[in-house]
């Protein structure tokens, strides 16, 4: 609005100045103006110089606008660019005002000169030179109009440059915002990828820690078993040492007692000899003192013998109690084994009777969901891992911690397949297999044995193992053996498959 008002005022002032100049020149200019032509041209040159100064100032404003554009692009600061554009606009308005003032000053000078010319022309020349003066005035008016148009074009140029600068600044800001948005989106994607990678690393680390904990538990169990075996050996050694010590103590006590008796006899004989040799010389009091000494020596000897006998009796009682405890534990273990064997035998007889009564027919292979697999292994880690494999393949699973536990569970419920380890406490895999093959009830059950040694092939075949799997083995191989054994049954004893 300010630029439009200034432009309208400039146009009005120029129009009024031109009308006034034309009117004055038409009435007063005379041929005397020719005499003053050189002076007027000098003054007009000064006015033209003022116009040139105005144009130079406008050019400087345009350069300032271009500098504002460069600063706006470098700093991408919309506020600074707009401030520079406003400053350029104010400078253009100021230049327009200066131009108007210069035109007004020129008009006044022209009016004065024209008045002087008119007076001179009226006095000297006439109508001919008045027409010439009018022509010159018209030329001056045209020149002033051209200068006004040039100034107006310069103003419009400055205004256009300011608008273009504002548009460039706006575009630069939009580009900067788009770049920032894309950078923020890329950063968000990168942070999400890093978070997912971090969570995956945490999961892997947790699985590793769980596996290490399971391994440590297995190591602790093995160490506890080894400690138990060492403790049993130590207890047996201590019992033997205690018995030997009791025997030595008894012999030492016998020797001490014999020495005391011999000393007592020697003392009594010596006292008798002394009493007989000095009976005449010793008084009744002396004889009493000797008797008292002999009695005290006998009392001390008896007390020592009683103390040694009591200690020997206490040690013998402790040894007997420890031997009785060990014997009770051994008897309990033997009784448990006998109970398991009796249960197997009873179940075998019952199954044999049932088989003899039931009609014989070819049974269809069981599905995985109906197949019961007994897993006997003293390693908790192996039991957990193999149990997960069997359950994932729809099998029913029974878990036994060792051979004795497996025998008890077999007596309670016959499995369809048995998977056993070799080395287990109480009853190992070979002995378990032999007992199962000797019983009519369990002789038909296929047995898969797992071992890390390659030297058990012949021993496994002799015991009656159907499949001997070496560690480590592929899980698919284990499942294939189970399905095959359920389809075709076990092989003849001594023909174990080695995998």
Short synopsis of the structure:
By secondary structure, the protein is mainly α. Among the domains are: 2-191, no CATH class; 365-498, Response regulator (Rossmann fold).
Your description of this structure?
The chain is mainly alpha-helical and 499 residues long. Among the domains are: 2-191, no CATH class; 365-498, Response regulator (Rossmann fold), CATH 3.40.50. The protein has helices at residues 2-28, 37-75, 78-124, 127-277, 284-357, 380-392, 403-412, 429-438, 457-463, 475-488; strands at residues 372-376, 396-400, 417-421, 447-451, 467-470, 497-498. Strands 2-1-3-4-5-6 form a six-stranded parallel beta sheet, sandwiched between helices. Helix 1 (2-28) packs parallel to helix 3 (78-124), helix 1 runs antiparallel to helix 4 (127-277) and helix 5 (284-357) crosses helix 7. The longest helix is centred in the middle third of the chain and has 151 residues, at 127-277. Residues 85-179 form a coiled coil. This is Response regulatory domain-containing protein. The modification 4-aspartylphosphate is found at residue 421. Residues 372-486 form the Response regulatory domain.
């Amino acid at each position: 609005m300010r630029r439009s008002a200034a432009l309208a005022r400039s146009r009005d002032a120029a129009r009024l100045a031109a009308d006034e100049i034309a009117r004055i020149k038409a009435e007063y200019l005379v041929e005397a103006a020719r005499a003053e032509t050189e002076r007027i041209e000098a003054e007009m040159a000064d006015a033209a110089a003022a116009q040139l100064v105005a144009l130079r100032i406008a050019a400087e404003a345009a350069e300032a606008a271009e500098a504002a554009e460069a600063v706006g692009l470098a700093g991408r600061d919309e506020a600074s660019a707009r401030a520079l554009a406003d400053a350029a606009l104010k400078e253009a308005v100021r230049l327009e005002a200066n131009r108007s003032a210069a035109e007004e000053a020129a008009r006044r000078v022209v009016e004065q000169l024209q008045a002087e010319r008119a007076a001179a022309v009226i006095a000297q020349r006439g109508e001919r030179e008045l027409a010439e003066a009018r022509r010159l005035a018209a030329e001056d008016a045209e020149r002033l109009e051209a200068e006004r148009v040039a100034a107006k074009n310069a103003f419009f140029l400055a205004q256009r440059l300011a608008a273009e600068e504002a548009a460039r600044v706006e575009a630069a800001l939009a580009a900067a915002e788009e770049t920032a948005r894309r950078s923020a989106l890329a950063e968000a994607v990168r942070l999400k990828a890093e978070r997912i990678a971090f969570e995956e690393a945490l999961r892997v680390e947790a699985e590793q820690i769980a596996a290490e904990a399971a391994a440590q538990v297995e190591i602790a169990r093995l160490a506890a078993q080894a400690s138990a075996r060492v403790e049993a050996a130590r207890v047996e050694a201590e019992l033997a040492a205690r018995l030997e010590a009791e025997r030595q103590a008894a012999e030492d006590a016998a020797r001490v007692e014999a020495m005391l008796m011999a000393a007592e006899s020697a003392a009594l004989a010596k006292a008798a000899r002394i009493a007989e040799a000095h009976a005449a010389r010793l008084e009744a009091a002396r004889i009493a003192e000797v008797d008292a000494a002999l009695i005290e020596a006998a009392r001390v000897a008896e007390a020592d013998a009683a103390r040694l006998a009591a200690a020997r009796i206490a040690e013998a009682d402790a040894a007997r109690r420890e031997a009785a405890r060990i014997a009770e534990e051994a008897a309990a273990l033997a009784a448990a084994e006998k109970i398991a064997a009796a249960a197997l035998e009873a179940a075998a007889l019952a199954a044999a009777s049932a088989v003899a009564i039931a009609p014989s027919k070819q049974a269809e292979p069981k599905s995985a969901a109906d197949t019961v697999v007994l897993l006997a292994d003293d390693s908790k880690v192996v039991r957990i891992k193999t149990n997960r494999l069997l359950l994932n393949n729809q099998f029913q699973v029974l878990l036994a911690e060792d051979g004795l536990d497996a025998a008890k569970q077999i007596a309670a419920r016959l499995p369809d397949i048995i998977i056993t380890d070799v080395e287990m406490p109480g009853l190992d895999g070979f002995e378990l297999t032999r007992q199962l093959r000797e019983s009519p009830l369990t002789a038909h059950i296929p047995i898969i044995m797992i071992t890390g040694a390659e030297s058990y092939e012949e021993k496994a075949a002799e015991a009656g193992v159907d499949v001997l799997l070496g560690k480590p083995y592929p899980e698919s191989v284990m499942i294939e053996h189970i399905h095959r054994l359920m389809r075709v049954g076990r092989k003849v004893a001594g023909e174990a498959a080695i995998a």
